[in-house]
Amino acid sequence: MQVASIDKQISVCPQIMPEDVPDIAQQGFRSIICNRPDGEAADQPTFEEIEAAAKKFGLEVRYQPITAGKVQDEDADAFGEHLALLPKPVLAYCRTGTRSATLWSLSQANTLPVAGILTKTKAAGYDMAGVVRRIANGGRTPTETAEDARFDVVIVGGGAAGISVASSLLSRDDDLDIAVIDPADVHYYQPGWTMVGGGIFDASDTAKTMASLIPAGVHWLKSAVAAFEPKDNAVILDGCRVVKYDRLVVCPGLKLDWHGIEGLVDTLGKNGVTSNYRYDLAPYTWKLVQEMTSGRAVFTQPPMPIKCAGAPQKAMYLSGDHWTKSRRIDNIDIQFMNAGGVLFGVKDYVPALMDYVERYDATLNFFHNLISIDGPARKARFEIKEPGTDPLQVDVEFDMIHVTPPQTAPDFVRVSPLADAAGWVDVDQATLRHKTYDNIWSLGDVMNAPNAKTAAAARKQAPVVAENIISDIKGHSATAQYDGYGSCPLTVERGKIVLAEFGYGGTLLPSFPRWLVDGTKPTRTAWLLKERILPPIYWRAMLRGKEWMARPEKVTAA
């Protein structure tokens, strides 16, 4: 008997036998629902046999037989009623457990988000892709099965990657019928938030309305995605609207898992707890830095991957610079808590960074992962996992703490057929085409190519995807390839930046000659690039399909 737990209230399993009931009771179950009709197979026990065995152990039982492949809307309603009334936890079974899992999924459609239902059932070993439209439709069978809209290209995500690839496509073929799906009203220039937290930019300068940035002629579907049906070339939106496509681009960014750290959500924006990873909190970072005259300042970095891997230490350097110039640095204990084992993943940039670690007298604590935080008590708990040693936990007091949250692919991506085992969209790292579905591409933070997740990476990826989609439309193979380029302007002090530019495998990929910008050293030129040049390039070039220094590299013959 293989029992799969969906949540604390309900588990499902294949056909049980009367002799299994003692073990079921031993596991703590208080009720059983049978979803398999009697007589479906010659070797199955009758419901009466299961019921008689269950009553000996005081278990409640219900008989709700469902014919395989014929779960009706009213069946899901009845299952939900059983689940509400029966003592918990409940064990439901059928021949394989699939009918029971389906009934649960449909019964919870008005209670849980689609991605939440798919996550729970997937973890239990059951794929609910076949009923995803019904789940998205509140557990009811849609009255219409035809698509609500169809486009040549559908782009999921209206961030840096999504708008850039839409513009790059139109610059190549302005007759394309393109739709961008994104529920957000505001588009953010997220690379600017580090500068907001350092007192250089105003937060308002990093935000524009989405409507002002969607390219002319591109349809904006202001909705959230519920699920993907790649075999049917369909994207299911909240409310069960069906959008069909000839080609799909997936780039919704990643999910900042604020709830992944116990107690964090309750204390963000107060008690000295801040993060430059949120628009509304970056100004609080600068406020804390300005007001701090002594005490301990903690900066955290979670396990990879995260967007802009240098951002956690950028916050530390800019803070340390302010405290140095205001002559407070000797009274402030800076602690950098890194879940990884190195300061920066590309070794060529580490010597310059270490000079600033020493300048600010910052203590580097590797293999320290933030797991909980008590804001009012000003204590943070870290789990230490050094290789070859047993994990242990330590509590660290703080006066100020800058938290970088753990990050994952969005839920609707992680549970989709597009995802790899880790939950990221599974692409060829050169062409950015999906490895299974030939008419799907992905770019930006959500795909699984081993590159840095930065806006600079998306700037180089968008033309590659656009070029390859146009080539595919013409019936040709991929013509452009991505070399893994990413850029991380490490703001080591106000006025100087270590401009890290690299590709796959840590290969250095500088954009400028060394005499102009030596990326391995802090330079004023790199600072001017970050402060003065990159923001207008982002707003006026990248998002408008003007591929300055981003023309795609051609595929080389094998």
Describe the structure in your own words.
Pfam families: BLH_phosphatase, Pyr_redox_2. There is one protein chain. This protein folds into 3 domains: 4-136, Protein-Tyrosine Phosphatase, Chain A (Alpha-Beta Complex); 150-253 and 409-554, 3-Layer(bba) Sandwich (FAD/NAD(P)-binding domain), CATH 3.50.50.60; 258-406, 3-Layer(bba) Sandwich (FAD/NAD(P)-binding domain), CATH 3.50.50.60. Helices cover 27% and strands 23% of the residues. It has 15 helices and 29 strands. Strands 6, 7, 10, 11, 12, 13 and 24 form a 7-stranded mixed β-sheet that branches. The longest helix has 19 residues, at 455-473. The mean pLDDT is 95.
Strands, helices and their partners?
Blueprint lengths: L3 E2 L4 E4 L7 H6 L4 E4 L12 H9 L4 E4 L9 H13 L4 E4 L4 H10 L6 H10 L8 H5 L12 E8 L3 H13 L5 E4 L4 E3 L4 H5 L9 E3 L9 E3 L3 E5 L4 E4 L4 E9 L4 E2 L7 H4 L5 E2 L7 H10 L3 E7 L9 H15 L6 E7 L11 H10 L3 E4 L1 E7 L4 E6 L7 E6 L2 E3 L4 E2 L2 H4 L25 E3 L12 H19 L6 E2 L4 E8 L2 E7 L19 E2 H17 L12 E2 L4
Parallel strand pairs: 2-5, 3-4, 3-5, 6-7, 6-13, 7-10, 13-24, 15-22, 16-17, 16-22, 17-18
Antiparallel strand pairs: 1-2, 8-9, 11-12, 12-13, 14-23, 19-20, 20-21, 25-29, 26-27, 27-28
Helix pairs in contact: 3-4, 7-14
CATH class of the largest domain: Alpha Beta
Strand content: 15-25%
What coarse outline follows from CA principal-axis ratios?
A: globular
Cα-to-Cα separation, first versus last residue: 52 Å
> What helical percentage do the residues reach?
25-40%
Domain count: 3
Mean pLDDT metric: 95
Number of helices: 15
CATH topology of the largest domain, by name, is FAD/NAD(P)-binding domain
Which stretches of 5+ consecutive residues score pLDDT under 50?
A: none
Number of strands: 29
- Annotated CATH architecture of the largest domain: 3-Layer(bba) Sandwich
CATH H-level superfamily title of the largest domain: FAD/NAD(P)-binding domain
Q: How many strands, which pairing sense, and closed or not: the largest β-sheet?
A: 7 strands, mixed
Radius of gyration: 27 Å
Coarse structural class: alpha/beta
Domain FAD/NAD(P)-binding: 151-270
Organism: Roseibium alexandrii (strain DSM 17067 / NCIMB 14079 / DFL-11)
Protein name: TIGR01244 family protein
Keywords: FAD, Flavoprotein, Oxidoreductase, Quinone, Transit peptide
